Amino acid sequence: MTLTATKRAPLGTRARTGEICPESGVWKVESSPSTTAPIAKGNRMPPYDGKSVTWVLIQYA
Question: Which candidate, 13, 50, 48, 6, places its Cα nearest to that of 31?
Fold first, then answer.
């Protein structure tokens, strides 16, 4: 029996507001003030506090 590992975007991957989310998980805003949000793969990365921001993947879903 062969197990194939699913390729995941590595933790620390960055995505900007408006880009397609490359990996489901918990994402954190890189700037301050910051927040975290669960975002699913394939969704558009949201703005935060009305601004375009960079999100960083900190945990897999």
Answer: 48
pTM strictly above 0.85: yes
pLDDT in tens, 13-60: 999 999 999 999 999 999 999 999 999 999 999 999 999 999 999 999
Q: Report CA-CA distances (Å) from 44 to 2, 4, 16, 48.
A: 34, 28, 9, 13
Where in the chain are the domains? 14-60
Query: What CA–CA distance (Å, rounded) separates 5 from 18?
Result: 29
